[in-house]
Specification:
This is G-protein coupled receptor. It comes from Nephila pilipes (Giant wood spider). The chain is α+β, with helices and mostly antiparallel strands. Helices cover about 20% and strands about 20% of the residues. It has helices at about 125-130, 135-140, 160-170, 185-195, 195-210, 225, 230-245, 265-280, 335-340, 495-505, 530-550, 580-584, and strands spanning about 10, 15, 25-35, 45-60, 90-95, 105-110, 115, 125, 145, 285-290, 305, 315-320, 350-355, 355-360, 365-370, 375-380, 385, 390, 400-410, 420-430, 460-465, 475-480, 485, 495, 520, 560, 570-575. The strands form 9 sheets. Strands 10, 11, 12, 17, 18, 19 and 20 form a 7-stranded antiparallel β-sheet that branches. Strands 1, 2, 3 and 4 form a 4-stranded antiparallel β-sheet that branches. Strands 5-6-8 form a 3-stranded antiparallel β-sheet. It is globular. The N and C termini lie far apart (about 100 Å).
């Protein structure tokens, strides 16, 4: 399913009449099987089409892209070019999350232009779409920047005074502790995570200093948002197991020829964890870990599927119950925490209702309701899961820095009187997939790297850039209101990676252009004068000149220099004494 274009087939939007009564949109994927199954004759086992999986979503939740076609907006797109940005001074940038409605974009200034002084952020597309004709015709324009500069090429070392002036502005470099201190340097953490010595010395470090293989929890700030899709993959599998254990009863009795459903098998669980790894490239491993005596005919059962290389089509499955002597998963921090949390009370779980219909007969003449209609079961939500701190998987299948998310699943006890904790589904992601946020934030936000950006705080502000991974410089220095980007460039901001590199040179006393990486005060596009304003300034300056002469006339000798903008009334050097003052 990971091939391009792959077996995924997107179908046209349609109105789901008599069911959800809304416009839906989705995709289909075929389900192949090997026929015949479970034989030793490999030469006669061939894949065959047996079923299809369908997923439908609300069509109104899909964003539309009104920006012109380009690298990020390939054709065909029916709504391309319908944005109301003024292409002479602005360009369109899509904004995700608006759904199927107009205005899901913003109009930002082109290189060489800046926002008006009364604007702080780019023009929002929703406001542009609602603006009347007169307001749209006169407004939503960017002003041209005059006297553009070129980035310095012949870089020289700064003087010690200037050098320490810029270093002192970055307060995070003072009172910085080690990896476990109150404040840490993001460059130091990145170098430590990428150190190749950990892969070969992790066993000795685990014996002498095991705390060095675990980072602080606030180092992985933003994992709940950036890795939400991976966490929901584990939650989906956990909720599937919860629904299966609570709904399916092998001891049910039905009339006529109907037989009850079979219990959960080992092959089903192995197939589910394998599909989770295959379907998401960020997931390094996924496992379903059952508690003791909670899986049928097994004391311990914990299938774990994983990949050894990125973008590889080779996947592996291992039962962690076989490694119970070396690594007991029952003693993992996330497993013990979830078991203690849900040992006594399960009232906070979410109740889900399913309305199942089955075929009337084998030919599928028409659907009928299931005997128990509707069915209800309780399962966890994303907030009920457990996030671990970043740790190094020493001696495991990955041997690298990982983050684990675990979601619990539940089932009935032996007498079906109450729900109990049955186990957890855990997914492992690489720490390097997480972006570092170095921008400023509130004091209560638990981010180890907040405020460590190198932007000039007076003229610019830090804005995060997603997708750069666990590395410094994942931000841009956007000019503040009333400032402008003064360089002749294809971008309108100062890149965070350039700021980090130039500041690193500044620390090492190398030639650096860090002192030029700032925005300048926005000026007018041209200089024009008003006649009335010039006359008022001239009269005011002349009055000030003569009043100064009269006030100093009592002195023996006084020198007054008064400069006026009018050359006719330019009072240069006046020597006054008592006699001359009387004549005046």
């Amino acid at each position: 399913a990971s091939d391009i274009p792959g077996p995924v087939k997107w179908f046209k939007p349609y109105f789901d009449c008599d069911r959800s009564n809304k416009w839906v949109f989705g995709a289909t994927v075929p389900i192949p099987d090997i026929f015949p199954r479970h034989t030793q004759w490999r030469h006669i086992e061939i894949p065959t089409y047996v079923a299809v999986a369908v997923m439908e979503v609300d069509f109104e939740r899909i964003d539309i892209n009104q920006c012109p076609t380009g690298e990020g907006n390939p054709p065909p797109n029916r709504y391309a070019g319908t944005a109301r940005c003024k292409n002479q001074t602005t360009e369109c940038e899509p904004i995700h999350g608006y759904g199927f409605r107009r205005g899901g974009y913003q109009c930002r200034c082109l290189p060489g232009y800046r926002l008006p002084k009364v604007m702080r952020n780019p023009f929002l597309g929703e406001i542009v779409e609602r603006a009347p004709y007169d307001q749209y015709r006169k407004g939503f324009n960017c002003e041209q920047i005059s006297y553009l500069m070129v980035m310095t090429q012949n870089v020289e070392r700064l003087s010690e005074i200037e050098r320490w002036k810029y270093i002192s502005r970055q307060s995070m470099f003072f009172n910085v502790g080690n990896m476990t201190g109150r404040r840490i340097d993001p460059t130091e953490v990145v170098d430590y995570v990428r150190s190749p010595d950990l892969k070969y010395k992790c066993e000795s470090i685990a014996k002498t200093h095991p705390e060095r293989l675990v980072l602080r929890g606030d180092v992985a700030f933003g994992k709940e948002i950036q890795l939400e899709n991976e966490a929901r993959t584990a939650l989906r599998l956990a909720n599937f197991i919860s629904a299966f254990l609570q709904i399916v009863d092998p001891n049910d009795l039905f009339a006529e020829f109907r037989v009850p459903d079979r219990p959960l098998t080992e092959d089903q669980v192995i197939g589910e964890v394998m599909s989770a790894v295959i379907g998401n490239e960020k997931i390094q491993g996924c496992g379903a870990f059952f508690d003791r005596n909670q899986f049928i005919n097994r004391t311990l059962f914990a299938p774990y599927a994983f990949r050894k290389e990125k973008n590889a089509q080779n996947f592996f499955v291992e039962d962690m119950a076989r490694h119970i002597q070396k690594k007991n998963y029952l003693k993992n921090e996330w497993f013990k925490s979830l078991k203690v949390q849900w040992a006594a009370n399960t009232d906070n779980l979410e109740t889900y209702t399913t309305k199942i219909k089955i075929r009337y007969n084998s030919s599928g003449l028409y659907p009928i309701r299931y005997d128990r209609y509707p069915l209800q079961y309780k399962a966890a939500e994303v907030k009920h899961g457990y996030w671990t701190a970043p740790y190094f998987d020493c001696g495991g299948f990955h041997n690298q820095w990982l983050i684990t998310y675990a979601a619990p699943f539940f089932g009935w006890d032996k007498i079906k009187s109450r729900l109990e904790f049955k186990g957890a589904v855990a997914v492992n992601m690489k720490l390097e997939e997480l972006d570092i946020n170095q921008c400023d934030d509130d004091y209560y936000v638990q981010n180890a790297f907040k405020g460590s950006h190198k932007c000039d705080r007076r003229s610019s502000r830090c804005v995060p850039i997603l997708g750069r991974g666990f590395d410094t410089g994942g931000y841009k220095c956007q000019c503040n209101q009333g400032y402008e980007y003064a360089f002749n460039d294809y971008i309108t901001y100062i890149d965070g990676q350039i700021s980090e590199a130039e500041f690193e040179k500044l620390l090492k006393n190398f030639p650096s252009r860090y002192d030029t990486l700032k925005c300048r005060i926005a000026g007018a596009a041209s200089i024009t004068g008003h006649l009335l304003f010039v006359m008022l300034v001239t009269i005011t300056d002349s009055e000030r000149c003569w009043s100064a002469i009269n006030s100093m006339a009592d002195l023996e000798s006084t020198r007054i220099t008064a400069l006026s903008k009018d050359p006719i009334l330019d009072c240069r050097l006046v020597t006054a004494n008592n006699n001359k003052s009387r004549r005046l």
